[in-house]
Write a structure and sequence with these properties.
2 copies of one chain form a homodimer. By secondary structure, chain A is α+β, with helices and mostly antiparallel strands. The first copy, chain A, has 2 domains: 87 residues, Winged helix-like DNA-binding domain superfamily/Winged helix DNA-binding domain (Arc Repressor Mutant, subunit A, Orthogonal Bundle), CATH 1.10.10; 55 residues, Dna Ligase, domain 1 (2-Layer Sandwich), CATH 3.30.1490. Chain A contains 6 helices and 5 strands, in the order H-H-H-H-E-E-E-E-H-E-H. In chain A, helix 2 crosses helix 3 and helix 3 crosses helix 4. In chain A, 30% of the residues are buried. The complex binds manganese (II) ion (2 copies) and zinc ion (ZN) (2 copies). One zinc ion binds next to helix 6 of chain A. Chain A binds a DNA duplex (30 and 30 nucleotides) through helix 4.
Chain lengths: 143, 143
DNA sequence: CTGCTAATTGATAATCGTTTTCAGTTGGAC
DNA sequence: GTCCAACTGAAAACGATTATCAATTAGCAG
């Protein structure tokens, strides 16, 4: 289940962060979008309702939310990182190369592969990145 | 099998690119290193033997080699992309968070998962990214 | 070997995304 | 309401990457 705006604000408070209108606006924007958003795109969207927000505050808020695990930061796209609403369970992403839509998935099992690699390489494995890139059904129709 | 310097230069020629001393130096450096290298780090290494090379040429060469699939470009690290020698088969990477060492692996089978996701999401899946991050045996000893 | 030419190079400047700085503002505890 | 650490936005600084352009050169044709 994706985090709701309510849960995110509660979580912020729990960690002692203030709940400013700017932060609420950024949170609303990310939760409302199903897509990967760059910092610039978040700024653009937030600015519509909240024209006085600074780009710097968008960067700071994204960094904060990401650090608390409330949003997901992805890199596979191109140059700059992109963000999407998070899901508190361990999960990975299916990303549309057409429109940036993100679908979370769980239920994969990389443990056997991870064990094999640890054995063969001598690495102590701590983490993994798994993403599928494709074309969503909406974008398939736009031929 | 990782590409040798010989194979890379042959491949360049095949695509009609000139084989300049600068390109050879960049290729040698990447092939000689087992690690992920940033453009700046490649430049630093190449400069030792070839002090007149420009950083711009390093960027251009990395872009070219990456486009031809002769080196792998990774993003999972931090801010800027990193490069490592490529392997012509479909493969993924095991990356040491301590020293940047990269080990290629093959023999994974994501097809069942990929099929399930395609069915459930309606996506046409084209590609995937899979990386394991850990600590190599040498770095484990450096406690 | 010699010339030719398109490809390549490196210095410089421009650009892009991000971070730092800092003085003014404000959320929320009391 | 008062207070203060947390927060904000403007501006400047910054690091990485890309564009521009005149000079050089790899590799081919003669
Ligand atoms: Mn997610
Ligand atoms: Mn590789
Ligand atoms: Zn799409
Ligand atoms: Zn290591």
């Amino acid at each position: 289940m994706k985090l709701t705006e309510r849960k995110i604000t509660t979580e912020l408070r729990k960690h002692g962060y203030k709940l400013t209108p700017q932060r609420q606006a950024v949170i609303d924007t990310i939760v409302a979008s199903q897509d990967l958003l760059t910092p610039a795109r978040v700024y653009e969207k937030v600015s519509r309702e909240h024209p006085d927000i600074g780009l710097v505050t968008v960067y700071r808020t994204l960094e904060l939310l990401s650090r608390l695990g409330l949003i997901c930061e992805l890199h596979s796209g191109g140059t700059c990182p992109t963000y999407t609403a998070s899901n508190p369970e361990h999960h990975h992403h299916l990303i549309c190369s057409g429109c940036g839509k993100v679908v979370d998935f769980t239920g994969h099992n990389l443990a056997p592969l991870e064990n094999r690699l640890a054995r063969e390489s001598g690495f102590r494995i701590q983490n993994h990145v798994l993403e599928f890139i494709g074309v969503c059904s909406a974008c398939q129709e736009t031929k």
